[in-house]
C-alpha cells in the first residue's frame, strides 16, 4: 500500500481571510494526517470541529495558511480533479433525470468531456451498470424528486464514482437516512471499496458506521480541529453487518466514544 | 394526477359572474348615478358602441407594452446574469438599482417626453423601465442561491465558473426568470397606461383620459375592462410559458422554497 496518498502536515486553515481578525474563525490548526492509497479512512469528531474543512482542504476547494496538503504525491494548489464527492444532501439537479445527473461529472472532467459525444453510448452503459450496482437498475429515466431519500443518496454516490476517481470523499453521506437504509448503504460502500480499490475518506457522526467501514478511524478535537487519536480497525474483511454486534466491535466503539467525550470538553 | 372537481373548475366563472351580479344589483338598488358608477350592463353597452375605438387603442397599448416588455426581458436577463456572475458587479450596481427602483416611474415620463416627444416611444420606455427590475432581481436570485455543496462537487472536478453557470446556474434560475415574467408583464401595462394618459394621443390610457374629459363615464369603465382583458390574456400566456418551460420546478416543489 502506497504510504501517504493523502498527506496533511501541520495544516492550519482560517475562514474569512489569511490574517487573524474578529470575524475569522480558525477551523483547523496544526492538523497532521496521512491516508494510504486504497485505504478506507473515517474521520469523527464533535460538530463544528473542522471535518468538512478537512475535506475541502484535501480536494483543493480551500487552501491552508500554514502547513502543506498533498494528494497522490502532488501539493494541492487547485481542485484535485481525481476525487469524487458526496454530501449529506444528495444535491442532484432536479431538471435532470437520474441518468443525466450521473453523467454530469463526465461533462466536466477531461478526457471524458471532449469525448462525451463520441462515447455517449459507452458512458450511458457505464452509468447504468453503476446504478444497477447500488440496486437502482431501471431508475435512470426517473427524476430525482421521484426517488426516495435513500435512492437519491445512492444516485449521489454513483455520481461521485462515474468518472472512476481514485479518491472518494464522503461527508456524512448517510446522515439524513433512517437506520435501515443507512446500514444497507454501508454495505454498498463496503462493496465498492472492495471491488474498486479506491481510497475513501468518510466523515461521520456515527461511530458504528466508522468502525464498520474503515481501516483506520481518526478522532478530531473540538475547534480548532486537529487529530486527537488514530485507531486502526483490525476486524477482518469482508465484514458482515453481524460484526456490529460482536463484543470486539463494541469495545472499539466504546473506546472511540471515550475519545469524543474528552474532545468535547 | 387527480382530476380537479367540476365545482373548482367552474369557480372562477361563478365568482366573476357573482361579482358582476352584485355590482349590477347594487348600482340599481342604491340608484347610484351612471356618471358615478355605471352598472356592468351599461359598461357592456359602451364597450359595444365604442368597439372600433377600443379595438384600435387596445392594439396600440398592447404593442407598446409588448415592445417595452421585450426590452425588459432582454436587458433584465443580461443584467441579472452579470450580477449573478460577479460580486463586484453586484456590489457596484446594487445601490444604483435600488435607487433607480425607488423612483416613481411616472416622474420619468416628462423627461422621456422631453427627449422623445409624445406617443409610442415614451410609452414603450416607461413600460420597459417599470418592468425590468423584477426580472433582474429574480435571475440574480436564482444564480445566487446555488447550493454551496453543488458548487463544491463541480469545482472539485475542475469545473470553471462558466461550467457551473451553464450546468447549474442558468437552468436553476429559469423558474425564477419565468416566474418574474408574470409580474413584469403586469407592470409593463401599468407603465404604458401611465405614459399614454400623460403623453399620448393614442392607446387605452389616452382613450380613458378623453372619455373623462367628456364625462363619458361608461367609456372609462369600458377602457378599464379592455385593459383587464389584455392583462389577463398576457398574464395567462406568461403563466403557460412558465409551466411549459419549467415543469420540473413545479412538480418538485423547487420554486416554492
Ligand atoms: N464557508 C465558511 N465561512 C466561514 N466559516 C466557516 C465556513 N465553513 C465552516 N466555517 C467554520 O469553520 C468551522 C469548522 O466548520 P466545518 O464545516 O469544517 O465543521 P464540521 O466538523 O464539518 O461540522 P459538522 O460536523 O457540524 O458538519 C466552524 O466553526 C464553522 O463555523
Ligand atoms: Mg460538516
Description:
The complex is a heterodimer of chains A (265) and B (257). Chain A is α/β, with parallel strands linked by helices and 265 residues long. Chain A is built from eight helices and ten strands. Chain A has one domain: P-loop containing nucleotide triphosphate hydrolases (Rossmann fold, 3-Layer(aba) Sandwich). Helices cover 34% and strands 22% of the residues of chain A. Chain A has a six-stranded mixed sheet, sandwiched between helices. A four-stranded antiparallel sheet of chain A has the order 2-1-4-5, covered by helices on one side. In chain A, a hairpin with a 6-residue loop joins strand 9 (216-220) and strand 10 (227-232). The two termini of chain A are 36 Å apart. With 257 residues, chain B is mainly alpha-helical. Chain B has a single domain, classed as MetI-like fold. Helices cover 82% and strands 0% of the residues of chain B. Chain B has eleven helices and no strands. In chain B, helix 5 (109-116) crosses helix 6. The radius of gyration of chain B is 22 Å and the shape is flat. Classes of the chains: A alpha/beta (265), B mainly alpha (257). Chains A and B meet through strand 6 of A and helix 7, helix 8 and helix 11 of B. Bound molecules: adenosine-5'-triphosphate and magnesium ion (MG). Residues 51-52, 171 of chain A line the site of magnesium ion.
**CATH superfamily annotation of chain B:** MetI-like
Q: Helical region count of chain B?
A: 11
Give the mean pLDDT of chain A: 90
CATH architecture of chain B: Orthogonal Bundle
The succession of helices and strands of chain B, N to C, reads HHHHHHHHHHH
Bound molecules: adenosine-5'-triphosphate, magnesium ion
* Rg of chain B (CA only): 22 Å
Number of domains of chain B: 1
| SS strand fraction of chain B | under 5%
**What is the fold named in CATH at topology level of chain B?**
MetI-like fold
